[in-house]
Amino acid sequence: MACTWSLIDVNLFNILCPHKFDNYKEAHVFQEYSKEDYIYFEKDNSDKIFLIESGKVKIGYYTEDGREIVKSIHGKGDVFGEKAIIGEENRNEFAMALSDTSICCLSLDTILDLMRDNQHFSLKIYKFIGLRFKKIERRLSILLFKDAKSRLVEFLKELSEEYGYDCKYTGNRIIKHPYTQKDMASLLGTSRPTLNCLFNDLKDEGLLVYDRKEIILSKNREMLAS
Asked: Which part of the chain is the HTH crp-type domain (predicted)?
């Protein structure tokens, strides 16, 4: 099976394959998960990292009163479970498949061997982890201190940076994103009806057009920063 995943600008399988494939063949194990299957639980051993071949995975935890907090959602090509690399012994979060999902599991020993053998790869891994932590910290800060509309605006900025491109004909910003409205509501700590109302408010203000597959930010989108 052909595999191409990237960590920042490092293609992990270009390093594993072909010149190291024989050494790490046994580490290339694909596992299939159905929707709502757990990939790991809180307190599980942190001895693997995971690369998504297809599907979606949410990462989160449960509060003492049983509420679910979603920290991030990952799709095809993404990496998760990376805290094992920096010494996490047991998971402090869960990972759950949001759809039928295929995942390549790589042992921590495999990754550490690669990092010892390739300094460039090692630096990129740490850069990736640092950027991931910054993103999660920023999102949690927004959840704690912003109202629902402000959280949505910040999320749209993030989506625009990650998935957006400018239409040279209209000046609009097109965002082709991997999230359902349910995904967005979970990440923003709100309900789907509330999120739908917020999208409608922004649409009525002439700032965006939303459908299931893409978001179009108008050329007057700088008003979202206010």
From this structure: 146-221
Sequence-ordered strand ranges (E) for 43-87:
48-54, 57-62, 68-74, 79-80
Write the DSSP symbol of residue 136: H
CA 211 – CA 136 distance, rounded (Å)? 26
Cβ neighbours of residue 196 under 8 Å, at least 6 residues apart? 181
pLDDT per position as a tens digit, 87-108? 899 999 999 999 999 998 888 8
d(CA 180, CA 90): 30
Question: Contact, 59 vs 95, CB < 8 A?
Answer: yes
Q: Which helix (H) or strand (E) holds 169?
A: none
**61 contacts: CB under 8 Å, gap ≥ 6:** 42, 68, 69, 71, 92, 93, 94
Q: What is the pLDDT of residues 48-67, one digit of tens each?
A: 989 888 899 999 888 888 88
Q: Which residues of 93-126 are buried (b: 16+ CB within 10 A; e: fewer)?
A: bbbbbbeebbbbbbbbebbeebbeeeeebbebbe
Task: Report the pLDDT value the prediction gives residue 4, as an integer from 0 to 100.
Answer: 43
In this prediction the pTM is 0.72
Place of tokens 């992990």: 12
State the Cα–Cα distance between residues 21 and 19, nearest whole angstrom. 6
First vs last C-alpha separation in the chain? 48
Give the DSSP H or E segment for 32: strand 29-33
Cis peptide before 18 (omega within 30 of 0): yes
